Amino acid sequence: MKRFITGAVVAALAAGYALAEEGKPHFQYSGEHGPSHWGDLEKDFATCKIGKAQSPIDIHGAVKASLPAIGFHYADSPAEVTNNGHSIQVNLANGGTVDLASGTYKLVQFHFHAPSEEKVNGHNYPMVAHLVHQNDAGQLAVVAVLFKEGKANPALAKVFAVMPAKEGEKVALEGGANATDLLPAAQSYYAYTGSLTTPPCSEGVHWQVLKQPVELSKEQLAAFRKLYPMNARPVQALNGRKVEEN
Asked: Residue 135: inside a domain, yes or no?
């Protein structure tokens, strides 16, 4: 994302999802509109095919670096849970900020993929939450929180209890949300520069993948997969990019 865009377009692109426009192709995760065809669905999606810094990736061979701790400053916020046709997404009115090596970013929304899009040493996790942020210049940063099966996750329980079953439906989340509740206790991370993982696959996105997974129950995973059995883009080539860890 190289320019600042306002309004509904920001919300859509910050999510990593193209606006649904009449007559536009609806990207999917299999078949003729699946990931291998995204770059051909329309000209604005060309980066999905020709980009050299795409996400997700298989994280391996990370280089130890003097990365600062992520400064999480999330806050209680009014929230809306929506089924956008590609995932369950929680939009936040004023979700707080994060301080990263590249600057300060405002939390816009978070959404889920099953299985995790990113791999760690070749291993997928059952699910991942992508916390999407934007700075004043319009640049994007994502913090990824990995999930493993275990105990029920209270933060997910609140969202999954009301997640709409039909594409385009939205519901206000009673009591709002605080993304702090999604974070693991230990917050060391991997960092690299990549892209949105859905069309238009825009590059220049700062990625932070937290190393420590959090838990969700088998029942919670099944509830999400009832709506989205598989909504993960395959891993992309590193093309010489460096992955760092703190």
From this structure: yes
